[in-house]
Design brief:
This protein is α+β, with helices and mostly antiparallel strands. The chain contains three helices and five strands; from the N terminus they run H-E-E-H-E-E-E-H. The longest helix has 12 residues.
Length: about 140
């Protein structure tokens, strides 16, 4: 094989002014309430997780730059459940919110855990999804 360089893309250069403008540009700020990451651990009862070991990477989802309400909607889609079909329970250590099966009422089957989001914000998001006309959360 030859050590010759293959036909590469032409190099592009920026001027000092362009580099200075790029360095001085403001960093976009996330919307209020947006969290950098929200980690979700799905239980064996979640669709597609049956048979996966507890420590399997396949049972984890990381949501980037989401509000708790958006994250809860996404998690409910993972679980194939509507807001009225689940119950939430905040846990202190480790700080997370458990999502339990709500059918029949009071069932205790753990479906998922949401980490890195304030429990009160996740509960408010659930309340807003249950009563969309009463809350603007």
């Amino acid at each position: 094989m030859s050590a010759r360089r293959s036909s590469a893309e032409p190099r592009t250069f920026v001027t000092r002014d362009e580099a200075a403008r790029a360095a001085a540009a403001p960093t976009p700020a996330p919307r209020p309430g947006v969290l950098r990451t929200i980690d979700v651990h799905l239980s064996a009862l979640a669709p597609g997780c049956d048979g996966l070991p507890l420590a399997s990477d396949g049972r984890w989802r990381t949501l980037w730059w989401k509000t708790p309400k958006t994250a809860l909607r996404i998690v409910l889609a993972f679980l194939e459940r509507r807001p009225e079909q689940v119950r939430l329970r905040p846990i202190g250590r480790p700080a997370c919110v458990e999502i339990h099966d709500g059918e029949p009422d009071g069932a205790t089957c753990l479906l998922a855990l949401i980490f890195d989001a304030p429990a009160a914000a996740v509960q408010a998001a659930h309340d807003a999804l249950l009563n969309p006309h009463r809350s603007a959360a």
